[in-house]
Structure formats: C-alpha cells, structure tokens
Amino acid sequence: MSHRKSRLLFVIFLIGTILTGRAQINTDQVMRIGANTHYFEDYVLSIQYFNQVISVNPHLARPYFYRAVAKLNLDDYIGAEEDASLALERNPFIMDAYEVRGIARQSLRKNKAAIEDYDKVLEMQPDSRGVLFNKAIALHDTRDTIGAAKTFDLLIRKYPKFENAYTGRARLRLEMKDTIGAKNDIEKALEINSGAINAYILRADISIKSGKDFESALADMDMAVKIEPQHAGLYINRAYLRYMNDDLRGAFEDYDRAIEIDPVNTIAIFNRGLLRAEVHDTNRAIEDFTKVLDLNPNDYKTLYNRSILLAEIGDYSNAIRDLDKVIDAFPDFAAAYFLRFDIKRRKGDIRSAQKDYDHSLALAKTSVQLPADRQFGIDDSTPDDGTLGGSTQSIHTTDSHESPETITETQEQVKRRFSSLTTVSNNFRQDMDYSSASDIRGRVQDKDMRVELEPYFLITYYTSPTEIKLNSEYIREVDDLNATRLLRFVLQVANRESGLNGPETDDAHRSSIEFYNSYIANHSPRAIDYLGRAMDFITLKNYDKAITDLSRAIELTPDFAVAYLLRAQASYLSVIDRYGSLPDLRTIPIEELRDALDDIDRVIRLSPTMPVAAYNKGVMLAESGAYDEAIKAFSRAIELKPDFGEAYYNRGFVYLSLGDSRKAFPDLSRSGELGIVPSYSLLKRMGAQ
C-alpha cells in the first residue's frame, strides 16, 4: 500500500474514531489534530477539524481564530475576516485575531477598518514591526499621506535596518512628487539589502516616469526577476519593457514563462494574445483570448480584442456577439460601435450598420462615464505613464472616499485601455503575511484548476472517500431502499464516481442483468427489480435501456421517488454522453434536458425535503444558461441543507457568471469552508480581495 493511501486510511480511521457521535467529541484532541494538520499546511483539512469543534462548542474563540488563519493562508479574506470577528466576539483579548482581521480587511481594501485593528494591536504591542508597516501601507492607500509618512518615519526610527520601510516610504514619496527623497530611500534600501526587490521595482518606475528610460527600467526588472524567479507578475512587467525596447522575442519568452509559472494568469495570456495578434498569428491569438474568457466570461477587454480577430477570419456572428457584450457594459464607448458598424457592413447588414456608424459619430467627441466599480476584465491596466507597479491605486475600492463614484475618460483613453498591453500593479510586496503563515506550500488556490460547476449528484455503486469527504451524500429514500436489502449492490450518492471500474466490474453487472432477466421472466414484476436492472444498465452506460426499465418501475409504483430520480439521472447522462464530457456553461439547450428536469420536478413534489433533487435541478438549469432559476434551485438546496458546500459553490459560480461578485464571494468562501477546494482557486482568480 502506498504511503498516500495508508495516510488516507489512517486519517479516515482517526476522524471516524474521534468524531463518532458529536456529543462524544474530545474538542481538545480535535483542536490539537487540527493545529497539527495546519502545521503541515493541509489548510483545507485543518478547517474541517475546526468546523467539528465549532459545531459542538460554538462558544470557544480559538477554533474560529485558527480557522481564520487557515483561510488567510488560502487567500479567503472574506472568510478570514468573518472568523477573526467571531473569535473576538468570544474573546476580545486575542491580539493575534486583530492582526489577522486587519490583514484580511486590508486585502479586501477595507483600509480604515484595518487601521482600527492595527491600532488595537499597537496599544498592547507598540513595537510590532509588521503591524506598523501594514498600518503605514493602509494609511497610504486611504490617501492619508501625512499619517502614512509619520508611521513610516516611526518605523524607520525603531527599525533603521528594515529595508521595506524605506521602499514603502519611497513609494509614498513618489506619489507626493518627491522623486529625490524617493531615490534616497531606494538607495538606502539597497544599501541595507542588495536583494530588496521593491527597490528595483520602484526604481524601474522612476526610470520610466522621468524620461521613458526603458533600458534602465529593464535592467532593474532583470534584477527583480533574478531575485524572485517564480513570480509571474515580474515576467509580465519585464515583457512590457522588452516590448518597449523592440524585443518582441524576449517579450514572448517572458509571457510564456509567466504562464508556465501560473497557467491561469489572465494578464499574461491576454498580453500574449495581443502580441500574437500584432504579428498576425491570428488563430493562436484567438486561442489565448478564448482561454482568458473561459476563466472570466465578463472580460470586456478580451471580448473587444477577440471580436477584431474573429472579424478578420470571417466569423462575423461571433464577433458581433462579443461586441454586443462590450457595448452592453460600456454603452458610451464610440470605438465599439464603430467596430460593430464595420463588421455588420462586411456581413452585408447595411441598415443596422448605418445605425452603429451614426451612433459612433455622435459619441466620438463625448467623454465616457465609467462606474467606479466597472471592471475592464483584466486585473490591472497599464497607466498612461507606463509605470509597472509602484502604486497600488485602482479603479475599484471598498473605502468609499478612496475613489470617486464615476471616472470620466476621453474616448481615446478608453480605446487605449482596450487595446494596450496590461501590466501588474501589485508587484510591490507589502509583506502582509501573518507571522505563522509564511513560506506557504499548501496553497491550493495557486494550483491550476479547471473552472467549472460542481457536478450533478449521481446514484451509483462506486465512490471513493477522500480526506475531506468520507461518506456518500445522504438521501433518506436511498437509505430506506438499501435497508430493504432487495438490491444486489449497495446504492451510494456522489457527484464524482470512483475511477476504479474495469472489465471485472462490467462483467459483474452483465451477470447481474442476466439474473434480473431470469427473475423477471419467472416472477410477477416488481418495481424494485426493474430499478435494480436499470442500475446495472446505468453502470454499463446503457442509458436507453435504463430509462425503459425505470419507466416500467414507475408504471408499477407511480410514487417511487428514487425511480424518478434515477430516470432523471439516466436522461441527463445520455445528454452529457452525446456532448462527450461535462459541458461548459450554456452549451446545452434546455429542451434537451426537459425530460430530466420534468423527472426532477416529480421527485421534488414527492420528496420536497430532498436537497440533492433541488441541487441537481440547479446544475441542469445552470448548464443550460437559465441562471436566475438555477440560483433559486441552489438556494432551495441550501435552505434544506445549510452545510451543502457544493450548492454554495455552484450558486457563487453562477453569480460570477452574472457578474455579481458581491453575492458570489461570500458563497465561495462558505463553500471553501465546507471543503470544496476549487472555491479558493476561484476566489483568488476572480479577485476576491
């Protein structure tokens, strides 16, 4: 037995031993196990242990605090803030909880609230270097330049050898137009530490701002990359500098390297697509833009650029479809109307094209009013001065006074945003790592995970336990059916079947079908026998025969909820089988799922408290693009089962597809807490910070 398998069995045994019967849980022992698991950086698993302690004794502060730290390591800042607050409600004297909450709030751009938390820590620990630094950065980001300068000065007096204090103050001085003071601070930081990466990043910014000195900026970015060769953002910004120095090959190499480090980095993928378009590598540029849109369907900058290339290859319908989305989001963007006019003209739709042309002319001399929270899609846009990240200002922020409600730009400025390379504005390292959470290796949010819905729950004979989910999903009607012992195998419920099925398994089910054939031929027909044979057919992927048997079972027993549930499953799987795999969103016409949806509705009428039925209905509706109805179905599943992690995840996923991140992020945070690992990747990828 492999080490991994033996460890898994040990964990399963241990959890089963300790957690059997909630009243019997030894909370101290489970807390120790959770802390040990956290120490070994299994953050998702450690959260499950802390969940168990909280479910038994919700009045303890420590499990909320430890869970907050785990969530902070997973970049779930929403969840970390909430748990740190819950810990402080129970014990307001846990200073570390204020620090954790401050870091979470600062990461969420709630800078004023973060400063209040840091002040609370500094009342008891006035010399805390990390808290002073974080507070200075937060003050800077709230535009309190005087307070930030005073805090940086205090930090430097207390810690004159702390190079990040100098680079932080240099960043502040740059915004205050004190270039000489900024340069002095940068040189001091490099004198203390020749590997002070922030100093090189800021000096590169100064080189660009002071005279478009891209060669000097490139030399500094080369040093930054040498210091941190696994930081994708540095390669993205160096690629921009190489491009400005007419080194296209070097720019392509840097984008490829950034994508190798972070395969879902939309900035790198987008920029590579833009360069490919420039060198007329059109099809591969479209591939890059499509990959970005797979990760973020509402990326308007990418939609705009893909529409140009789709028009070039004659795919006018999809080009217009992309532009329609851009115009819906930016109805005052003249260039989008002009581009759509040109595509419609080439397509031969002259009347409609003329309307777009006239509208583009009417808008040409107007300004564009952009909502402060309107995202272009790509994380950060290169500012007009070409700077690479010395500033962390952005369009969107949580503290209301930090950004106006709307932003006014000329048509040319907006067009430049849509058509220019993008750089990363957050390469400046703020060192907001909590002291016990540094050198993180178990960061599941950094892994390359496909962005998709959590799958449909199936009734199956084969599942595999994991460290996070030990048992199959519970459906009372399925459990009652297993209790009759009338089936030849035990039914289980899971949304991922075991991959261990093979020839021996298939032979066993063919033999089972022969048994049922003989039994049904020689006995009075029973619904359970047809259902049993249908299960064998489903296991062998013969869905048509399964549907026939389940229809017979329903004729014999019209209120047989499990038979309707299984027939819906067989109908659904037969549709999926025709598509070759679980499809992306909005690729299944709802008419093809009508039979399955009708059967699910019958299950809901017969068993109105079955959460899996509501969940499965939500999955089918989401996959057919009926988002509003899908949200209602997932909400019903959560109402019936408040710890239904998959339902929270899918509802959050659908909210994101609708562009409603405010509702999506709390759902994704909750689903991550409940063990749905892709939540953390999606939270990070979609910028829940």
Walk me through this protein's architecture.
The protein is mostly helical and 689 residues long. Among the domains are: 3-124, Alpha Horseshoe (Serine Threonine Protein Phosphatase 5, Tetratricopeptide repeat), CATH 1.25.40; 458-685, Serine Threonine Protein Phosphatase 5, Tetratricopeptide repeat, CATH 1.25.40. The chain has helices at residues 3-19, 27-39, 43-56, 62-73, 77-90, 95-107, 111-124, 129-141, 145-158, 163-175, 179-192, 197-211, 214-227, 232-244, 248-261, 266-278, 282-295, 300-312, 316-329, 334-347, 350-363, 411-419, 476-483, 503-522, 527-539, 543-556, 561-579, 594-606, 611-623, 627-640, 645-657, 661-673, 678-685; strands at 367-371, 406-410, 458-460, 492-494. It has a two-stranded antiparallel ribbon. A two-stranded antiparallel ribbon has the order 3-4. The radius of gyration is 29 Å and the shape is globular.
Quick synopsis:
The chain is an all-alpha fold. The chain is 65% helix and 2% strand.
How do the strands and helices of this protein lay out in sequence?
Blueprint: H1 3-19, H2 27-39, H3 43-56, H4 62-73, H5 77-90, H6 95-107, H7 111-124, H8 129-141, H9 145-158, H10 163-175, H11 179-192, H12 197-211, H13 214-227, H14 232-244, H15 248-261, H16 266-278, H17 282-295, H18 300-312, H19 316-329, H20 334-347, H21 350-363, E1 367-371, E2 406-410, H22 411-419, E3 458-460, H23 476-483, E4 492-494, H24 503-522, H25 527-539, H26 543-556, H27 561-579, H28 594-606, H29 611-623, H30 627-640, H31 645-657, H32 661-673, H33 678-685
Antiparallel strand pairs: 1-2, 3-4
